[in-house]
Design brief:
Helix content: 10-25%
Shape: globular
Structural class: alpha+beta
Largest sheet: 3 strands, antiparallel
Strand order of the largest sheet: 1-2-3
Order of helices and strands: EHHEE
Number of helices: 2
Number of strands: 3
Length: about 70
């Protein structure tokens, strides 16, 4: 069974779990460090018109198998 969760920050997802979903040829703009940096340095905040809400999908064992 799969479950989904909407989180309030990219910091709520382990870097290794997020980046494990990426392929080597994926955009660097999908990298966990890049997305967290947008939040950390104030680029992605409600004040700038973006409220980060990553969504993760986990399998029955709790492993992240999808994210957006």
């Amino acid at each position: 069974m799969l479950t989904q969760a909407s989180l309030s920050s990219f910091h709520d997802v382990a870097e290794s779990d997020w980046d494990a979903l990426l392929r080597p040829d994926d955009s660097p703009f999908l990298d966990h460090r890049f997305l967290c940096g947008l939040e950390q340095f104030g680029c992605a905040t409600p004040e700038t018109g973006w409220d980060p809400r990553p969504v993760v999908v986990k399998d029955a064992q709790g492993k992240i198998v999808g994210a957006a």
